[in-house]
Amino acid sequence: MTTYTRQAGPTRSARSARSTRSAGVFALAGLALLGLTACGGGGRTEPHTTDPVPLPSPTATKQKMGEKNLGYTWPLKVDHGIAECRKDNQAVFTAPDGTTYALNDRARNAGYRAIEPLRASGDDGDKVSLGSVLSKTLKLCRAAH
Q1: How does residue 59 score in pLDDT terms, banded at 50, 70 and 90?
Q2: Is 119 strand, coil or helix?
Q3: Contact by Cβ (8 Å): 91, 106
């Protein structure tokens, strides 16, 4: 006859130590996220548009967009332009003067100009994040497929 014995699980102090480590990891992750959001990228508290007009769902690789669509998160000094997804997921923005700028690394690596001179500063003095324009532009890449 075989006798089975139950192995004891971790002691209460071992479980408590693991719980404390897990809480520490989550706390550090939360602080890192807070740090990333606090380091610039903030919008403006008084954009020209306070009631944005939503963009239609993308159906092509180009789309007009502007501050009227993105309001507080509009990151550029010009109030509108054309976002476009070009080959190999190159996200670009063409300003009203016809100059085309890179929104992502793929476009920069393809030789498009850096968009830095066109970026607006938020109320905190840091550059406003390109995230809103870039995410909308990358949706154009998906619409092309």
Answers
A1: confident
A2: strand
A3: yes
Angle value at C-alpha 53, between 83 and 39, nearest 5 degrees: 65
pLDDT in tens, 80-98: 999 999 999 999 999 999 9
Q: How is residue 114 annotated by DSSP?
A: E
Distance of CA 112 to the CA centre of its chain: 20
Nearest-5° angle of CA 75, CA 132, CA 136? Answer: 125
Provide Rg for the chain, Cα atoms. Answer: 24
Of the two residues 83 and 52, the one the predictor is more confident about is: 83
CB neighbours of 68 closer than 8 A, spacing ≥ 6?
A: 49, 52, 53, 79, 80
Q: Which residue has the tokens 């693991």?
A: 18
CB 82 within 8 A of CB 93: yes
